[in-house]
């Protein structure tokens, strides 16, 4: 099945449910990639700066926690690599310290992957890079076949975009490919109050809103749909008790949308919502609850930013 057919089927399936939903997976076309870059640069989006501070200030300690020696070659595999602005600090320190490694970024977006490859080639001309385009749920099995020691990076709280069961299964799947003692560096946004979290998903400049609405624009462009972007609005939610930021697209009026490639119409009532994204926030207890017995992973270290907004966890295979 081609990617487009999958996208069509997922849209048909999601908009036929009650409540309606669309997978956040589809945010990242070229426009979505660019909007996400802008989101990461917004003052309200504390996640980037918090994790960037950890990578800037604690790269040496993070590398020590990998337990890799300078005379052994290893693979550094990054899932959902994005633009690599944080990872570049880790790579720089690894190179300065004389570690021998290959950097393997994986991303679903071809565009993002060419940006990150260009950036790293530019910064580190001698770095060996093997980029892989694809869905990390799908490429993991044939990506992790080398016998070299490996460290896997999964940062930016990307895990938070999965529901807890999917996150737990995904961690188990990653762990399946780790040998005893090998590490996963997992960057997670921590549970904190609404006044800090909610603005990160509802910025004053309206970039998150444009990012969310871009999903409808993408369906218009790629499937001949007639979503009127003016008659939907971005509607985020978060409570500290639940610890999950949720994004919705809310219909401002009763309306019917036609998707030509599906030859199907979808009715929306006024205030009806399409659920588009979750961003879970974590603490040690929640993370531990996601580590199944079969995963055989344990938290061995944790690096925090100075405001304690964000944590980069080192998980070690037992
Ligand atoms: C929220 S961004 C974070 C990027 C980076 N990890 C960071 O912390 O800056 C998510 C990235 O993961 C990629 N992505 C999302 N879902 C993916 C999937 N299922 N497989 C591979 N990459 C994915 C997106 O294209 C995007 O570059």
Describe the structure.
This protein has 318 residues and is of the alpha/beta class. It has a domain at 46-192 and 283-317: Rossmann fold (3-Layer(aba) Sandwich), CATH 3.40.50. It is 38% helix and 25% strand. Helix 3 (46-66) packs parallel to helix 4. It is globular. The model has no long low-confidence stretch (mean pLDDT 95). Bound molecules: S-adenosylmethionine (SAM). This is L-histidine N(Alpha)-methyltransferase. GO terms for molecular function: methyltransferase activity. Keywords: Methyltransferase, Transferase. InterPro entries: EgtD_Methyltrsf_superfamily, MeTrfase_dom, MeTrfase_EgtD-like, SAM-dependent_MTases_sf.
């Amino acid at each position: 099945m081609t990617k487009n057919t999958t996208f069509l089927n997922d849209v048909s399936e999601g908009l036929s449910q009650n409540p309606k939903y669309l997978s956040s997976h589809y945010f990242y076309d070229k426009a979505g990639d660019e909007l996400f870059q802008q989101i990461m640069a917004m003052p309200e989006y504390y996640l980037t700066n918090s994790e960037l501070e950890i990578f800037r200030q604690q790269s040496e300690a993070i590398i020590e926690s990998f337990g890799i020696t300078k005379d052994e070659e290893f693979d550094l595999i990054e899932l959902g690599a994005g633009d690599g602005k944080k990872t570049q600090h880790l790579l720089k320190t690894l190179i300065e310290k004389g570690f021998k490694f290959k950097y393997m970024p994986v991303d679903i977006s071809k565009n993002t992957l060419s940006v990150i490859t260009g950036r790293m080639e530019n910064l580190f001309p001698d770095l060996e890079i093997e980029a892989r385009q694809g869905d990390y749920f799908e490429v993991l099995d044939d990506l992790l076949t080398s016998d070299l020691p490996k460290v896997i990076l999964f940062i930016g709280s990307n895990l938070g975009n999965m529901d807890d069961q999917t996150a737990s299964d995904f961690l188990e799947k990653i762990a399946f490919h780790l040998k005893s003692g090998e590490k996963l560096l997992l960057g997670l946004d921590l549970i904190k109050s609404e006044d800090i979290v909610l603005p990160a998903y509802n910025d004053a400049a309206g970039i998150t809103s444009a990012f969310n609405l871009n999903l409808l624009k993408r369906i218009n462009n790629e499937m001949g749909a007639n979503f009127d972007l003016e008659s939907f609005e971005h509607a985020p939610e978060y409570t500290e008790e639940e610890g999950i930021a949720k994004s919705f697209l809310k219909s401002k009026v009763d309306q019917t949308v036609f998707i030509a490639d599906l030859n199907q119409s979808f009715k929306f009532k006024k205030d009806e919502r399409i659920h588009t994204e979750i961003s879970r926030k974590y603490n040690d207890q929640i993370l531990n609850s996601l580590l199944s017995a079969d995963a055989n992973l344990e938290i061995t270290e944790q690096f925090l930013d100075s405001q304690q907004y964000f944590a980069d966890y080192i998980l070690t295979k037992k």
